[in-house]
Amino acid sequence: MVGKWATRRRRAEQAKIERLQRVPSARTLARWLTTGRDRLTRAETLTVAPVEGSVPALVEAREMVSAFQTMVRPMAPDRLEGWLTRAGTGLVASFARGVGQDKPAVLAAITLPWSNGQTEGQITKLKLVKRQMYGRGKIDLLQARLIGLTPP
């Protein structure tokens, strides 16, 4: 019984390794690089390891992204200055400059419990509807499409 289980497991691992022959997309690879190592599958880890080995700057960038996430999620605004200093060079420097330019908003996002996510979602929906209507977006027609009212 154990022998059959071990054989099935070995074959499954070999199939996963064979699937690694496909090159992942840049978006997939970026997601794997920014995901914690404990959350990646064995196949994903085997794909990420040679990439990080050949480009050491990616390891530093991953560490900076992880540091930013650990600053934002537990709401630790006191770490922002140090992070901006460390992130000023390297692959995340452009992102760090943007965060530095909008520092009051970033501090507010870290410290305050409010979010504008609901508003942004409604604006995105409005823009989608306007695009679908090919510029025929007068207020009465938009109300009918978004709110469900019948036009007068």
Automatic annotation (TrEMBL):
InterPro entries: Transpos_ISL3 (IPR047951), Transposase_DDE (IPR002560). Pfam families: DDE_Tnp_ISL3. Residues 7-145 form the Transposase IS204/IS1001/IS1096/IS1165 DDE domain. PANTHER family: TRANSPOSASE FOR INSERTION SEQUENCE ELEMENT IS1557. This is Transposase.
